[in-house]
Amino acid sequence: MIETLKNTRNLPDSALQELLESTDAALAQELKDTAREVCLKVKGPEVLVRALIEWSNICRNDCLYCGIRRSRAGVPRYSLTPEQILECCDAAWRDGVPTFVLQGGENPAAAESLLPTVKEMRRRYPSAAITLSLGELPFDLYAAFKEAGANRYLLRHETANPEHYASLHPAGMRFSSRLSCIRELKRLGFETGMGMMVGSPGQTTEDLILDLRLMQEIGPDMIGIGPFIPQSGTPFENCPAGNAETTLRLLAIMRLMFPEANIPATTALATLLPGGKQAGIQAGANVIMNVYTPLKERKKYDLYKGKTDV
Q1: Is the pLDDT of residue 27 over 60?
Q2: What structural domains does the chain harbor?
Q3: I want to staple 131 with a disulfide (CB 3.0 to 4.6 A). Which of 24, 152, 176, 214 is the partner?
């Protein structure tokens, strides 16, 4: 079975569905063990650490699942100053973390103001990897960030089913627009990340297989997935959370499909599952995110209930 699992890229949809839905605990463990074996062979034993800097919780969007959605009441909004961002980078660099991930709500006008900061990050740390996760932006702004020194961009597609996408997002947000942005980021030469929530309301196993097929088509350099976790004050606050086991199986499948990709064990997985980061590593992940957002602002980046920083 191990050799079959190592050939996951060529498995038919029916076999992928079996891997995701099977009640055979031995098969599930073999899947994770095989993914870990491949990760060790291809990526090595080192677990890569990223410095996550949550620069702003101001967002123009009103996504139904998100704790920093525009209309959610009672969220104290903030944006880090350039000085604060650079202090976070300095702290991470002193800790030996050479990759900065600047993440925030989608706000193109404010994002443009980050260009001088990104240039300064590149000047101070010429060998660092600078990853941005700022949502859908005008294509010329993506190009400007590339010119400024950013070399990676994470834009999760959330779901490859356009109808499901529409059910998770407000009118005006379109799956086609998200996909166009991802393709443009690839065209510009960014190391590009994709990913989705696992167990979001209305999601089916068939939807998850569509996600895998879309990623096979595009070939992401980074893949970020985590379980859906409901947040109070959102339309989905009473929906059940995603399943940690399904998330781990998907993580393993993606390691086998994309052996060279950088795949984190996410904070969402750690929030839902005690020891989730270690479980993710054992299922094929090779990256963890350490939060460097200033403590004063950290709790305001309140994406989902119980969000952990470890």
Answers
A1: yes
A2: 2-298 (3.20.20.70)
A3: 152
